Amino acid sequence: MPAIAPRVLAHRGANQRARENSVEAFALAAELGAHGVELDARRAADGIVVVHDAWIGGLGVPAEFTVAQIQAADPMVATLDAALDASRGMLVNVEIKNFPGDADFDLDERIVDAVVELLHGRGRRDDVLVSCFSLDSLTRVRALDPTLPTGFLTLLGFDPIEAVAVAAGHGHSALHPDLRSLPGPVAAATAARCHEQDLQMNVWTVNDPADLRRLAVAGVDAVITDVPDVAREVFG
C-alpha cells in the first residue's frame, strides 16, 4: 500500500446504510470515515435537487416541478443546499446531470448556471469538485468560474489515456474514469499520465477489496465507492 492512501468518496452518500443521495446518507458517510461524498445534481423548476434519475416516481421529470412539489411527492429528496450542509467538512463531488437522451436534457445548460450561482451564494465555503460526462457542461462551468475544480467523467469504452489528454486539454482538474476501463496495468499507466498533466484521478465505482488495493498501488487519488467503511479498512 502506498504511503498516502487514496481518498474515499461515498457514492451518493453511504447508500448501503441509508437511501442514496439523501441527507441521512451524506451524514452517515462522515461517520463511516469517508473523506467526501459524490452526489447527483438535477434541475428543478426553481432550484436544484439531488437525484440520480431524470424521473421521480409518482411525479415525473423534476425540471417540470418546483422543489416544494417534488418534496411533497417525496420528502426524502434533498436540495443541493441541504446536501452541502450535511456534508460540511468533507469534499463534495457534485456531478451535474445533463446528458443527451435524458428527459431533462437542456442545451442552455441552466443546471450549470444554477449550480455555480448556488455555490457562489454560499460564500465559497464548500470544498467542491464539479464533475460531468458532458464536456459542454464542464466548459460552461469553467466559463462562469475558472477557479472551480472540474472533473471529466468517462464511461467504459472511452480510452483512459486518451481521456487524460482530453481532460488536460480542456483545463480540468481531474479525470473520473469508470473502473471497468482500467484493467491490469492500465490503471497505473493512467494514474501516471494524469499526474504528469497535474490531474487527479478519481475512479468510480470501486467496491471490491481487491480492486481497492490494486488502485491504491496504482497511485490513484480517490475512489468513489458504495462501501466507504470497507475502503477505509482496506486502506488502513
Brief sketch in words of this structure:
By secondary structure, the chain is of the alpha/beta class. It is 36% helix and 21% strand. It has helices spanning 23-31, 67-73, 80-86, 110-121, 135-144, 160-169, 186-196, 209-218, 228-235, and strands at 7-11, 36-44, 47-50, 78-79, 91-96, 128-132, 150-154, 174-177, 200-204, 222-225.
Radius of gyration: 17 Å
CATH architecture: Alpha-Beta Barrel
Q: What is the average of the pLDDT values? A: 97
Strand content: 15-25%
| Named CATH topology | TIM Barrel
**SSE-based structural type:** alpha/beta
Helix content: 25-40%
What is the domain total for the residues? 1
Reading off the top of the CATH hierarchy, the class is best stated as Alpha Beta
